[in-house]
């Protein structure tokens, strides 16, 4: 099927459901899933994917148009240019009111280091809903070889830095357990309990090296819910990498078992093999949420997905595989004669998602690529 980007004139049918009230540590509707987009932070860490401040601002505006709940537009202490880009996005995008009255959360990423946290706060504090996302590694291999810290030292750092973030006036603080999926369970429950006690509002469980399978990730989320003190008072988040090609599947399983914030990037760009792909995660929830996932939903306007994907591809220079699900050039192309025959008779034979749902526009009457019957 030949396609081109359309300018959507109507909202996705899923948007009939209202976005819940913003509360930093609680989502009033247990079926609602927050999407945190980290294209401008983790996504930009793809080799060669550096973007200008203007390009970042353009993408941030587009992400709001898409309906993203939380934007993580950068790592302010990484460089002055990153600081200025995050500040600019916080000032403009972080105060823009959407058609549904929603204002996006603007989240600054920072290590568990006072200078990082202070710098991130200086960048995001101009937003109406600022967040600090502070992170430290919790796995034995990271603590021993990278941090060179004991478990007790890491716990104390995490406690002190969340308290410090609170002291700056921030009431929306995300604590990230880097390499959580390779961490000792009892230690993970302990450190999460400590940061919750001192004011964390979201806890992020990172599969930093993309090593777990969906059953393992789901079991981890269930175990955290069952064993972490105070976990009912915060939002559980996942951050999945794609090293084994399981980032989307792991992210969906995390949501199924209780995570209500999902960290993703447009086109799945990111470190090494990338991150969970926003378009894949969102469309799984859109197409399977009611029937297989107990009614889970987002407020993403899926009809803006293709437009957003093309923008990120152009600005990042990260070109898509033709067979990339949903947004690749071949995603809705039918070349096999058998498939063409089915499509001519009824599009539902080989099309479970309408291309129009993500912003494609059919450019021929029959909407398929004709080929030779064999």
From TrEMBL:
<comment type="similarity">
    <text>Belongs to the alpha-IPM synthase/homocitrate synthase family.</text>
</comment>
<dbReference type="GO" id="GO:0009507">
    <property type="term" value="C:chloroplast"/>
</dbReference>
<dbReference type="GO" id="GO:0009098">
    <property type="term" value="P:L-leucine biosynthetic process"/>
</dbReference>
<feature type="region of interest" description="Disordered">
    <location>
        <begin position="1"/>
        <end position="23"/>
    </location>
</feature>
<dbReference type="InterPro" id="IPR050073">
    <property type="entry name" value="2-IPM_HCS-like"/>
</dbReference>
<dbReference type="GO" id="GO:0003852">
    <property type="term" value="F:2-isopropylmalate synthase activity"/>
</dbReference>
<feature type="domain" description="Pyruvate carboxyltransferase">
    <location>
        <begin position="33"/>
        <end position="306"/>
    </location>
</feature>
<dbReference type="InterPro" id="IPR013785">
    <property type="entry name" value="Aldolase_TIM"/>
</dbReference>
<dbReference type="InterPro" id="IPR002034">
    <property type="entry name" value="AIPM/Hcit_synth_CS"/>
</dbReference>
<protein>
    <recommendedName>
        <fullName>Pyruvate carboxyltransferase domain-containing protein</fullName>
    </recommendedName>
</protein>
<dbReference type="InterPro" id="IPR054691">
    <property type="entry name" value="LeuA/HCS_post-cat"/>
</dbReference>
<keyword id="KW-0808">Transferase</keyword>
<feature type="compositionally biased region" description="Low complexity">
    <location>
        <begin position="1"/>
        <end position="15"/>
    </location>
</feature>
<dbReference type="Pfam" id="PF00682">
    <property type="entry name" value="HMGL-like"/>
</dbReference>
<dbReference type="Pfam" id="PF22617">
    <property type="entry name" value="HCS_D2"/>
</dbReference>
<dbReference type="InterPro" id="IPR000891">
    <property type="entry name" value="PYR_CT"/>
</dbReference>
């Amino acid at each position: 099927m030949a396609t081109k980007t359309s300018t959507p004139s109507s909202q996705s049918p899923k948007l009939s459901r209202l976005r819940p009230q913003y509360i930093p540590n609680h989502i009033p509707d247990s079926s609602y899933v927050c999407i945190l987009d980290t294209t401008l932070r983790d996504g930009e860490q793809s080799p060669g994917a550096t973007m200008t401040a203007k390009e970042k601002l353009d993408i941030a505006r587009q992400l709001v148009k898409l309906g993203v709940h939380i934007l993580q537009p950068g790592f302010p202490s990484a460089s002055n240019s990153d600081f200025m880009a995050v500040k600019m996005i916080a000032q403009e995008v972080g105060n823009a009111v959407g058609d549904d009255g929603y204002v996006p959360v603007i989240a600054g990423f920072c290590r568990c280091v006072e200078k990082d946290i202070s710098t991130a706060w200086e960048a995001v504090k101009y937003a109406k809903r600022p967040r600090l996302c502070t992170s430290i590694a919790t796995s034995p291999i990271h603590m021993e070889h990278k941090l060179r810290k004991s478990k007790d030292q890491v716990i104390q750092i995490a406690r002190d830095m969340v308290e410090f973030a609170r002291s700056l006036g921030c009431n929306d603080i995300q604590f990230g357990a880097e390499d959580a999926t390779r961490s000792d369970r009892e230690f993970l429950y302990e450190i999460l309990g400590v940061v919750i006690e001192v004011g964390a509002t979201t806890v992020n469980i990172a599969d930093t090296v993309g090593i777990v399978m969906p059953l393992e990730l789901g079991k981890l989320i269930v175990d955290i819910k069952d064993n972490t003190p105070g976990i009912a008072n915060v939002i559980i988040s996942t951050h999945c990498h794609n090293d084994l090609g399981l980032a989307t599947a792991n992210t969906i399983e995390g949501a199924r078992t209780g995570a209500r914030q999902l960290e993703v990037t447009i086109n799945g760009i990111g470190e090494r093999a990338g991150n969970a792909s926003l378009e894949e995660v969102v469309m799984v929830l859109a197409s399977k949420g009611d029937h297989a996932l107990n009614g889970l939903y987002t407020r993403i306007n899926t009809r803006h997905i293709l437009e957003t994907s093309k923008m990120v591809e152009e600005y990042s220079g990260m070109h898509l595989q033709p067979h990339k699900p949903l947004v690749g050039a071949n995603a809705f192309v039918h070349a096999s004669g058998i498939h063409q025959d089915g499509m001519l008779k009824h599009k539902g034979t080989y099309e479970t998602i309408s291309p129009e749902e993500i912003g494609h526009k059919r450019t021929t009457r029959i909407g398929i690529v004709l080929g030779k019957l064999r």
